[in-house]
Specification:
The structure holds two protein chains of two kinds. Chain A is built from twelve helices and twelve strands. Chain A is an alpha/beta fold. Chain B is 37% helix and 17% strand. Chain B is built from 16 helices and 14 strands. Chain B is globular. The chains are: A alpha/beta, B alpha/beta. The interface between A and B is large, with 56 and 57 residues. The structure holds thiamine diphosphate (TPP) and magnesium ion. Thiamine diphosphate sits at the interface of chains A and B. Chain B: It comes from Hypothenemus hampei. Chain B: Its EC number is 1.2.4.1.
Chain lengths: 398, 362
């Protein structure tokens, strides 16, 4: 028996995404420049008007979205394999199944908007500008990683992307602070602040809903509801699983997070809403994680294999998008094959290189503890082993 | 959620590595039953729940999932929803609920998935649990145990790899235990549960899956270890090595190596960080005239810093032939990089090096 959240996903599994406009002339290799789709309806909380369910998608956007989602999927498969080879150590939280969330939101952002998330960060890191090689190198702990191998799976950063945070819920106030900085500087930028259905219960989330609303901070709270926080299903952790309503006085939108176009629609509305000074907004994206919580969790003691299979077969965000764009002649099946092959080569190459790279030298153990070190030597494991502080950086946030 | 050798949560097969080579070479201990630290903790919880109706457990994934590290395995099945409670991920909230329940006469065992996450709840641990008995002039007891894995794990980077020994030992009103092996774990946790004061029990995740011998006495459901008493793990006369938790193992390894060079190191397993058994340390230093403290936590205001300061303040200072020194975790956040992570923690070679310098041997 499926939990309610999954059943509700599955029910909508064959949506009537009919092309409304430019139907392709034929199916043999000709493509159209753009077409229109209809998404599932959104659910609204304290909003008079929701996102439009009519979506226009250009061929370029389709190619781009597909490429991005598929790259994340390949990268995560590779990350999982590296973990099994014991080259990735510690934790390894995969994003497979949730790709449409990052990609859909990113397509609504402007260059000066920021993002912060938790430890399930590989996909977001890539989408925010880090090539697979640097993500995978971070995972293997090598010097070519985007944090020089010091951060690992959970801690990756780049311009306008503030990680990669390991303490459940703690990134949420940070996101509001990042949004406050945009408001303070008058940039009209927003900060997308992501957290899980488990994290949604942390007290600090509610503290900052309040302040964000009081001060009209341009923060888009995104609750990635993948049904589980570790081994606990959302119904066992949350007195209300309508996460889009849990900001109370903060308006909210529920969106099918397996539909990249619907996610983009919701995010576009949210960006406009926040950037126009109306204050914060919550988006709940209903999604699913295929793997266990982290690689060492088989992920089958608290849900059935059938449940996972059913989502994969009926709601996969990549397969469904691919079928959609091929059947509406935005791209051809051959083009998809080419993209797939290209991504495979790129990620495989990146993986090989990320394995072959070196770790940073031991001289970097005491590097970048401070921007301005006032301590002189840094103490090693004993008084007999002093270390020299170093600055490496460079900072991407100033 | 990490466990031995860098594999993460729930990878039990890889956890159950047998420790064998070190320390237990006489035939009597070899014959003793072996038990993992995890199972020792589990039996402590089980026995105390059977003994006292008021004992209950709450925390993240402790019930249906059997615990993120399986320390509570089987307890939910045995004792049910009322006494083994899965909480949402809300440390501040459930630590406060547990503390309130203790104030009202229950004996909660509040599990933190790791002590890194107890930082979300540290206000309740210190401001509510540790201080209430004093503030109420002895009218409101807070008999609670806060427990979970503490200290450096493997491959999990800065936010998940830190020792909180010094943090909690700093606070009057708290008792703090830091078990090393299975006997420690069982005896100290049982004492903690029965204690009328709040006790922080700092377990070591890397050691959960390691087996240690359990004496017949330790297997009994009456087995208790006194809070505040250290144990001499290995007697010696040339130098005192004092440590807690996994650093005890580092010391035992170092002592073995030193023995090959004719140096007999006395290894003290602190077991408790508050109160700290300064008597045992003092007696040892009077005998050996040298001291090295070893811990995985940071140096500044650490456990070693406290021990050295206490020696300075007392007569035993005059028994030292050389300055006492601390071996600690390097004074840096924990890097993910494997080679740096290794270098950030004390190794037996670091202890051997310090000992040789103090004893002026090559
Ligand atoms: C404060 C804190 N408590 C507990 C943990 C351990 N932990 C890490 S992830 C996780 C589950 C979070 O679930 P959710 O927010 O739904 O995110 P998801 O993993 O599904 O992406 C838990 C309990 C932590 N990292 N931080
Ligand atoms: Mg979740």
């Amino acid at each position: 028996m499926l939990p309610a959240c999954v059943r509700s996903i599955c029910k909508k599994s064959i949506p009537a995404n009919k092309a409304l406009g430019l139907i392709a002339r034929n199916g043999s290799g000709h493509t159209v420049g753009e077409t229109q789709f209809e998404t599932q309806p959104f659910k609204l909380h304290k909003l008079d008007e929701g996102p439009s369910t009519h979506v226009t998608l250009t061929r370029d956007e389709a190619l781009n979205m597909y490429t991005q989602m598929h790259t994340i999927r390949r990268m995560e498969t590779s990350a999982g394999n590296l973990y099994k080879e014991k080259i990735v150590r510690g934790f390894c939280h995969l994003y497979s199944g949730q790709e449409a969330v990052a990609v859909g939101i990113k397509h609504a952002l402007r260059p000066h908007d920021a993002v912060i998330t938790a430890y399930r960060a590989h996909g977001w890191t890539h989408i925010m500008g880090v090539p697979p090689f640097e993500v995978l190198s971070e995972l293997t702990g090598r010097r070519t990683g985007c944090a020089r191998g010091k951060g690992g799976s959970m801690h990756m950063y780049c311009k306008n992307f503030y990680g990669g945070n390991g303490i459940v819920g703690a990134q949420v106030p940070l996101g509001v602070g990042i949004a406050l900085a945009a408001q303070y500087k008058g940039t009209d930028g927003v900060c997308v602040t992501l957290y899980g259905d488990g994290a949604a219960n942390q007290g600090q989330v509610f503290e900052v809903y309040n302040m964000a609303k009081l001060w009209d901070v341009p923060c888009i709270f995104v609750c990635e509801n993948n049904g589980y926080g570790m081994g606990t299903s959302s119904v066992r952790s949350s007195a209300s699983t309508d996460y889009y309503t849990r900001g109370d006085y903060v308006p909210g939108i529920w969106v099918d997070g397996m539909d990249v176009l619907a996610v983009r629609q919701a995010a576009r509305l949210a960006v406009n809403y926040c950037a126009s000074g109306k204050g914060p907004i919550v988006i709940e994206v209903q999604t699913y994680r295929y793997s266990g919580h982290s690689m060492s969790d088989p992920g089958t003691s608290y849900r059935t294999r059938e449940e996972v299979q059913e989502v994969r077969q009926t709601r996969d965000p990549i397969t469904s998008f691919k079928e959609k764009i091929i059947s509406h002649n935005l791209v051809t099946a051959d083009e998809i094959k080419e993209i797939d092959a290209k991504i495979r080569t790129e990620v495989d190459e990146a993986t090989k290189k990320a394995k072959a790279e070196k770790e940073i030298g031991i001289d970097e153990l005491p590097a970048d503890i401070y921007a301005n070190n006032l301590e002189g030597d840094i103490r090693g494991v004993s008084i007999f082993q002093p270390l020299k502080h170093k600055r490496i950086g460079p900072a991407v946030n100033v | 959620m990490v466990s031995k050798s860098g594999r993460t949560l729930l990878n039990l097969a890889s956890l159950n590595r047998v420790i064998s080579k070190r320390a237990f070479s006489n035939s009597k201990t070899l014959a003793a039953k072996q038990m993992t630290v995890r199972d020792a903790l589990n039996s402590a919880l089980d026995e105390e729940m059977t003994r006292d109706e008021k004992v209950f457990i709450l925390g993240e994934e402790v019930a249906q999932y059997d615990g993120a590290y399986k320390v509570t395995r089987g307890l939910w099945k045995k004792y049910g929803d009322k006494r083994v409670i899965d909480t949402p991920i809300t440390e501040m909230g459930f630590a406060g609920i547990a503390t309130g329940a203790a104030m009202a006469g229950l004996r909660p065992v509040c599990e933190f998935m790791t002590f890194n996450f107890a930082m979300q709840a540290i206000d309740q641990i210190i401001n509510s649990a540790a201080k209430t008995f004093y503030m109420s002039a002895g009218r409101v007891n807070v008999p609670i145990v806060f427990r979970g894995p503490n200290g450096a794990a493997a491959g999990v980077a800065a936010q998940h790899s830190q020792c909180y020994g010094a943090w909690y030992a700093h606070c009057p009103g708290l008792k703090v235990v830091s078990p090393y092996n299975s006997e420690d774990a069982k005896g100290l946790l049982k004492s903690a549960i029965r204690d009328p004061d709040p006790v922080v029990c700092l377990e070591n995740e890397i050691l959960y899956g390691v087996q240690y011998p359990m004496s017949d006495e330790a297997l009994s459901s009456d087995f208790l270890l006194p809070i505040g008493k250290a144990k001499i793990e290995r007697p010696g006369k040339h130098i005192t090595l004092v440590a807690h938790s996994k650093a005890v193992e580092t010391c035992l390894d170092a002592a073995k190596e030193l023995a090959g060079k004719g140096i007999e190191a006395e290894v003290i397993n602190l077991r408790s960080l508050r109160p700290i058994d300064i008597d045992t340390i003092t007696k040892s230093v009077v005998k050996t005239n040298h001291l090295v403290s070893v811990e995985q936590g940071w140096p500044t205001c650490g456990i070693g810093a406290e021990i050295l300061a206490r020696l300075m303040e007392s007569e035993v200072f005059y028994h030292l032939d050389q300055p006492a020194v601390r071996i600690t975790g390097a004074d840096v956040p924990m890097p993910y990089t494997q080679s740096l992570e290794v270098a950030a923690l004390p190794r037996p070679a670091d202890v051997v090096d310090a000992v040789k310098r103090l004893l002026k041997v090559k």
